[in-house]
Structures are given as C-alpha cells and as structure tokens.
Specification:
By secondary structure, this protein is α/β, with parallel strands linked by helices. It has helices at 12-23, 35-43, 69-77, 111-122, 136-142, 153-158, 160-166, 179-207, 212-219, 227-238, 247-264, 269-286, 295-302; strands spanning 4-8, 27-31, 47-49, 61-64, 102-105, 127-130, 133-134, 145-149, 167-172. The longest helix is centred in the middle third of the chain and has 29 residues, at 179-207.
C-alpha cells in the first residue's frame, strides 16, 4: 500500500495535489525551485526538498507535475541526461528510486515522450504511469481531478490509493504509456479552441455594443455556451488575468497537437487558428498571464475596451 509519496513541481496544480495528499494521510514530500513555496509546504505539514535527487529512495510513488517534457526529462532522468536513452544522472529522481516505484507523469507531454519514458524506466524496474491531469487548480486542491491514465496494470494497483485521493475520475485508457497523453492532447485541442472562441465572442459582442455582463448571462443559458466560456469569461469581466493556466501553456500544448497532426498528415484549421491567437498574445508580452488574456489580442486589434479591474477601497 502506498504510504510515502513525492510531488515534483508545486505550481498551482502540483501544490493542490500535494496538499490533498497530506490531508489524505500520506507522508508527502514536495519538490520545487521556489523556496517560499517549500517553506509554506513545510508549515502545512509536508517535507520539502530542493532537488529531485534528494527525494527519499523509499518513496512508493512520485508525481511529476511540471510544465513540459523538457522539465519532466530533467527531473526524472537528471539535468544533464541529454537524450532519454543515456544513463540516469544522480540529480534525477529515478536514480535513487527502488524497483517497483511508480512515477506518475501528470504533465501534458507528447505521447511519444511518454512512451519513451516508460521504456527507459522499465529497464530499471520502475513503473511509469502516463497520467496527465485535467480540472485546474481548484479541482486539484479539492482532490477532484480527472486523470487520463495508461500504463501497466501493476502500476495502477500500486497507486490506487493515491489516485483515489487526488481524483474524482480516473480513466483507465490502456496498458501502455502514450494513450493517456494522446487523450489529453485531444482535450487540450478542444480547450484551446474553446478559450479562443469564448474570447472572440465576448470581444465581438462588446464591439457590437452589448453589455458584457448581460452577454455572459445570456450565453451561459443558451446553446452556445461551453465549459470554458462559463469558466474563463468571468476573468475577462473582472479584468483579472492572474494566471490560473497561463497563455504560454496553450502555446506549448497546441504545438504538441500540431506536431502530432503533421506526423499524421491531418489538417487542423481550427486548432491552428487558436494556436496563432495564443502565440500572438505571447508575442505581445502576455505569455504569463491567464489564458483568458487572449481576449486582449482582440482588444488591441479592434479598438474596443475590455472590462477593467474593479477599484477597491
């Protein structure tokens, strides 16, 4: 039974996951470059380490919740690991782990990267569960994530209590890595297109002279609504682009989508248009703002005024 776990990457999603595991009674180790986050995690009852190579060898499971495949490769195999196929480095978490440990890859990465990770770790007797997550920071903090997972049945068995603690729904999508990341890739295609469409619709409505708040109320009770419209538009209405999921995340995720489509010779006109919108936002200096800030691209191009933050006393 899993008792000791580690979470590498204490960003908005990883911190919520780590706190959820603490509440569920797991001995939880947190790893992040941000020293203040590590101190806060210790205050909450967790154990903190600055480097993946410092994680205890007797951890039963390690959740990797970083931004992209480059970061995932670095924390799993070591900063100087180069290509995945070479020897493990001491600063990577896999170097010290005991055989039978499960690494859960919770980041959005290319399916081929997930498969290569699993193959490399299998050589050392370490399981890799391809387990990208969805639900945002709020769901992570509440232990209600949706997990799109694939991997060896034994990896699922060894981490069942962990998955139960952090997820509302665990989709078992196959016995080998890659399938989970492919499902997540399709989810991100839709998420990016929906955010772009929501931003475009709100901006166009404002250009037509509609009241933004009333437009939101009408659309959320009409067939044109989407989960992303309902979730992201309030941030536009508040003029608050504090990042929950940053613009740069979708620049990265939609690049994964487009790269896979190119390999499959599959046209993606809508995903490509959305990708261009997010890239434009990044080029305008908004890459680290919330992904709903793509609406500000339309503000710039169309001479409209989006809602501004409310003044506080």
């Amino acid at each position: 039974m899993t008792k000791k776990v580690a979470v590498i990457g204490l960003g908005s999603m990883g911190l919520g996951i780590a706190q959820t595991l603490l509440r569920a009674g797991f001995e939880t180790i947190g790893c992040d470059l941000n020293e203040q986050i590590l101190r806060d995690f210790e205050t909450a009852g967790g154990v903190s380490v600055p480097s993946p190579g410092d994680i205890d060898t007797d951890c039963d499971a390690v959740l990797v919740v970083v931004v992209n495949d480059e970061q995932a490769k670095s924390v799993i195999f070591g900063q100087d690991s180069g290509d995945i196929e070479i020897l493990l480095e001491e600063d990577g978490v896999a170097y010290n782990l005991n055989p039978g440990t499960v690494i859960l890859g919770c980041s959005t990465v290319a399916p081929d990267f997930a498969r290569r990770c699993a193959q490399r770790l299998d050589e050392h007797g370490i399981f890799y569960l391809d387990a990208p997550i969805s639900g945002g920071a709020v769901k992570a903090a509440e232990g209600q994530l949706s997990i799109m997972a694939s991997g060896a049945p034994e990896a699922f068995e060894r981490t069942a209590t962990v998955l139960d603690a952090i997820a509302e729904t665990v989709h078992r999508l196959g016995d080998s890595a890659g399938a989970g990341s492919t499902f997540k890739m399709i989810n991100q295609l839709l998420a990016g297109v929906h955010i772009a469409a929501a931003s475009e619709a709100m901006s166009f409505g404002i250009k037509c002279g509609l009241d933004p708040q009333k437009l939101y109320e009408v659309i959320t009770h009409s067939a044109g609504c989407s989960w992303m419209f309902e979730n992201r538009v309030p941030r536009i209405l508040d003029g608050d682009y504090t990042p929950h999921s940053a613009v740069d995340i979708f620049v990265k995720d939609l690049h994964i989508v487009q790269e896979k489509a190119a390999n499959e010779h599959f046209p993606l006109p809508m995903a490509t248009a959305a990708s261009q919108l997010f890239t434009m936002a990044t080029s305008m200096g908004m890459g680290r703002l919330d992904d709903s800030a793509v609406a500000k691209v339309y503000e710039s191009m169309s001479n409209i005024a989006l809602p501004q933050p409310k003044e506080t006393d």
